[in-house]
Write a structure and sequence with these properties.
By secondary structure, the protein is an alpha/beta fold. It contains six helices and eleven strands. Helix content is about 25%, strand content about 35%. The strands form two sheets. It has a seven-stranded mixed β-sheet with strand order 3-2-1-4-5-11-10, with helices on both faces. The chain has a four-stranded antiparallel β-sheet with strand order 6-7-8-9, with no helix packed on it. The structure holds S-adenosylmethionine (SAM).
């Protein structure tokens, strides 16, 4: 499959941009969730796996790892980083796996990259079909009505002897189901300036709508606050959450 431009140019910067992300903590979170709400099995798939940082932590924890991403450039990096992982270049809404998976993740808000709400619905159905009985799907999401339209995250760091400044911010107009992720990178190398500016369209949605869609797909759902260091039930106030969705015939009650 040919790769669309999304993340192709960004792939050269991607690992630098993600240097502050604690993938070990994400992995430990998912391992705990897998024991509590999953089937505890060791077949793992990372949806929108990017350059494979999370895959390596699961490979080190003796999981059989697969990664799916729409970008061939990102998958090239993932293959180098995690050579044992089986990698699939595809849109997540077309997910099909050769074997049932025990644990599927989709972090860094990547579910919002599904092109539309029906595409998210289709992805949930595919994830449900790909999971073994009792399997767990974990992903994070942001509520469209909580998006502040502020300057987002700005970082500056030393890179290749020069300075790299980057900014990522979401913008949501307040209407409809599209929001934008704005990415701006400014690199200074030996008095030369490089600029990279891009805007990625993402799907805007409410947390309660996502929950209903997961339940319609057959999942039992727990919603947590967006804190990979703790498993804290969502109190309903923040617009930034982690979903744990279990392929289980019955209710799961997280905190009793
Ligand atoms: C923000 S990055 C997150 C990567 C990785 N999960 C991480 O935490 O580093 C988003 C990733 O989603 C991928 N992506 C975007 N749209 C996709 C789609 N429809 N299906 C599969 N992957 C997609 C991009 O190529 C990119 O690698």
């Amino acid at each position: 499959m040919s790769s669309p431009p999304l993340y192709a140019d960004l792939s050269q910067y991607y690992d630098v941009l993600c240097a502050n992300i604690d993938y070990r903590e994400q992995c430990e979170f998912a391992l705990r969730a897998n024991k509590i709400w999953g089937n505890g099995g060791k077949k793992y798939l990372d949806l929108a796996c990017g350059s494979g940082s999370l895959l390596t932590h699961f490979a080190n924890a003796d999981f059989t790892c697969s990664g799916l991403d729409i970008s061939a450039e990102m998958l090239k990096l993932a293959q180098i980083r995690c050579p044992t992982a089986q990698l699939i270049c595809a849109d997540m809404k077309e997910l099909i796996t050769a074997e049932p998976q025990d644990l599927i993740s989709c972090f860094l808000y990547s579910t919002h990259y599904c092109a539309s709400i029906p595409a998210i619905q289709q992805t949930f159905a595919k994830v449900f079909a790909a999971l073994a009985p009792g399997g767990l799907f974990c992903f994070d999401a942001v509520d469209k009505d909580s998006i502040a339209n502020d300057e987002g995250h700005v970082h500056a760091l030393n890179h290749n002897g020069g300075e790299l400044r980057f900014q990522t911010r979401w913008h949501y107009s307040g209407h409809g189901d599209a929001m934008d992720l704005h990415i701006h990178i400014h690199e200074t190398q030996q008095q030369q300036q490089f600029h990279y500016q891009d805007r990625h369209r993402m799907t805007a949605i409410n947390i309660n709508v996502l929950k209903q869609m997961l339940e319609d797909a057959g999942f039992s759902v727990v919603i947590l606050e967006h804190d990979f260091g703790r498993l804290t039930e969502w109190q309903g106030a923040s617009g930034n959450v982690i979903f744990c969705a279990n392929k289980f015939l019955g209710e799961i009650n997280p905190f009793t």
